[in-house]
Amino acid sequence: LDCVTGLSTLAEVNARSTWEVQEEILSKEAARCFDVIHSDCRHSLCFTKAYSRYIDGTGSVFVMPATQPREPSNGSGFTMQEFLGVLRYFTPSEVAKLM
Fold it and tell me: What value does the CA radius of gyration of the chain take, rounded to a whole number of Å?
């Protein structure tokens, strides 16, 4: 990863639906611990073996550019609802490129 250009050169465009952080994960209180990064960021947390299976301290999640948040399916609000439909996990190949 070129630290000057940031993550925008790394992100896979077609990874949206497969790697999206699901509503049941975002509605958990622990979701506030996500390291949320944007395409212009030049950092990310380390990625652990538990990445995408656990929330706290396992790695960064990516804000998909030009994506509008969705409304919660059950109609009730939660702390991270502004990120519903906006966050996704890094793909295995993206993680490999960051290493």
Answer: 13
Looking at the chain, list the stretches that DSSP marks H as alpha helix, in order from N- to C-terminal side. Answer: 16-19, 23-26, 92-98
Please, are residues 74 and 37 in contact by the beta-carbon 8 Å criterion? Answer: no
- Tell me the pTM: 0.79
Nearest-angstrom CA–CA distance, 72 and 54 = 21
**What is the rounded distance in angstroms from the CA atom of residue 54 to the CA atom of residue 31?**
10
Question: What's the pLDDT tens digit per position in 54-91?
Answer: 888 788 898 887 777 777 887 777 888 889 989 999 88
Of 68, 69, 9, the C-alpha closest to 39 is: 9
Is there a contact between 88 and 60 (Cβ–Cβ < 8 Å)? no
* Residue 35: strand pairing partners: 60
Residues 85, 67: contact at Cβ < 8 Å? yes
